[in-house]
Prior knowledge:
The protein has 487 residues and is α/β, with parallel strands linked by helices. It has 15 helices and 25 strands. The termini are far apart.
Amino acid sequence: MKTGSVLFVGAGPGDPKLLTIRGKEALEHADVVIYDRLANPLLLGHVKNDAKLIYCGKEADRHTLPQDQINLLLIEEAQKGKTVVRLKGGDPSMFGRVGEEAQMCLSHGIPFEIVPGVTSGMAAPLYAGIPLTHREYNSSVAFVTGHLCDKNAEKEPDWAALSSVETLVIYMGVKNLPRIRERLLAHGKAKETPVALVRWGTLGEQKTLVGKLDTIDQDVAQARFAAPAIIIVGEVVRLRESLNWYESRPLFGKRIAVAAKTTEGREADLATRLEKLGAEVVPIPLMETVVSTSAAGTGIPADFSSYQWLVFDDERQVSFFFQELRLRRFDLRQIKSKLAARGRLAAEALEKRGLYPNLVLDELLTTSTVHLHLSLGKGDRILHLSAGKSMVVLHAQGTVTHTVQAGTVEWNHAHPTTEWISERPIDWLATDDSYALPALAAFAGVEWQTKPIMCVGTDTEGKAREMGWRIVTNLLSTQEPEKILSL
């Protein structure tokens, strides 16, 4: 059997957008992903649906899997011919034990690759407004761990040497902060030296505590400031007061669940706008489900190709239509009907699939008037793929419009990020897609009508109000959404 490989991938400091392009590629091709506690679970959205996911998170005095078992697991999965990604928070080489895991692969003849990541020791300070170097303050930085394993407990850092370094970045040091403070002071570090702790850096939960070396352990205890956190010791901490760009954004601390269209990057547009305002955007995993043909008249009829016109209301209906054709293994060359698209996006969706509409209708046309804009003969039949109820309407000269909804959008409960998303409090819901509203309601759960929702576009806003949402905001008509969303 062909031997697989192991890729050690740095997941970055928390913000899923800080994953490297190479890291994303590795996740997309992985057969097995073994991931840590500090790796943002949203990154699992890049993984194939059939990939095997294994959590091996570690917290103080509580390890899901001991390190020896993790090492063996990497070997066992790779020996099955699998591509294994070991997803590690931050950068895998920065106190991430990648060396011993890579050595394990080497000793068993397993090919491996190490993909660097953005380390939290650099990202968290920057997101707190603290650059690690500044020519007016320092010219040296040292990265050090504040936690030592029992095996190397006697190998304490050289605090005498470190106390002379202008800036210290300390990982995993919250528990041992009193000892760290005492050692630095004992070796000459000034009592007034500024110190900052950044917890959950780069995420919406980010919190920063600033104090002086002499009393920082007391400040931390009083504030009940807990791990995981990065500690920065040095004069550069003073820059936070003027450079605090992230935590000063108007929506900082707000978590918004977004269910949006992916067509032409529109999901990115909505998410990016909210992120620029400082919100933590949580993408809700969606899936399109084709409506099966039934005796009740729902779904695409079996004889759809016998209709004289096929009218597509939007790009979603085009997507549903083609999914159904794939299920039926239908040959597109058998379509003899004329095609009409309501709106440019629907037309482009057809063109991307090799079908060119005979007519592009104004997207503002109402469903009941679409037939008036088609070239129809006596007794012609129109299949109108549209959201809403299925119906059959008889017009003059015996023409008939058969309206059906070809599919629906649902919340994907089986997605690997679902459990993590569901456990986190959400301040607002947001969407630019009226089809996604039922999925957002399912995600919001009991009393979903009371959860505030932000919509993009009048159609989405109107449907949200029609469904029963009580707090609805239209982002396009709101000049200062941050004021509303910050309530």
